[in-house]
Write a structure and sequence with these properties.
Strand order of the largest sheet: 1-2-3-4-5-6
Number of helices: 4
Distance between the termini: 28 Å
Radius of gyration: 16 Å
Length: 172
């Protein structure tokens, strides 16, 4: 099990094109870097401040849903040692999920307040094991954060299209 496989499961979960519509319900972004902001002391794209997967529901709710992917117990324990990394992006999301291939990676008492849990089922797809609570008014994105999210949305879409159409050249 690796991160790329888990990201594919997230893509499958959040791909919903309804008949008669011209767009997917969700826009998806992987590896969203947190941009530099003089107030946070971070440099653009600091590796420790990356949201693994962010989606926005474009069919009414407008919810931004963030995901932290962990593929092993050791990976999860490392995250727990510095939960401020995820908080950088979580504060901007209506919901935040830990995504794991096996529910045994995280013990129930370890899940931070405000986090939900998704795990792979034996059949393959991801299933919500614990709902993430709704944050009705998350911290608004700054222009730089929105630009970073938009760039990741475009790059993710291009990767998805290339995967569907082998030989397609990248435009991002």
């Amino acid at each position: 099990m690796n991160e790329a496989y888990m990201m594919e499961l997230l893509r499958q979960r959040y791909t919903r094109i309804r008949r008669g519509t011209d767009a997917d319900r969700y826009v998806r972004a992987s590896h969203v870097r947190y941009p530099h902001d003089a107030s946070n002391g971070l440099s653009f794209g600091q590796a420790s401040r990356i949201a693994d997967y962010v989606v926005m529901d474009t069919y009414g709710t407008g919810e931004i849903i963030g995901h932290e992917v962990k593929v092993s117990r050791a990976d999860w324990l490392s995250e727990l040692r510095d939960s401020s990394k995820a908080e950088t992006w979580r504060q901007h999301c209506h919901r935040w999920y830990l995504v794991v291939p096996d529910v045994r990676i995280v013990h129930p008492e370890e899940l931070p307040d405000g986090w939900g849990l998704m795990a792979q089922t034996k059949a393959g797809p991801l299933r919500v094991r614990q709902n993430a609570p709704l944050v009705p008014d998350p911290t608004p994105l700054t222009t730089l954060q929105l630009a970073s999210l938009s760039r990741s949305l475009a790059k993710t879409r291009e990767r998805e299209l290339r995967a569907l159409e082998p030989g397609r050249e990248a435009h991002v």
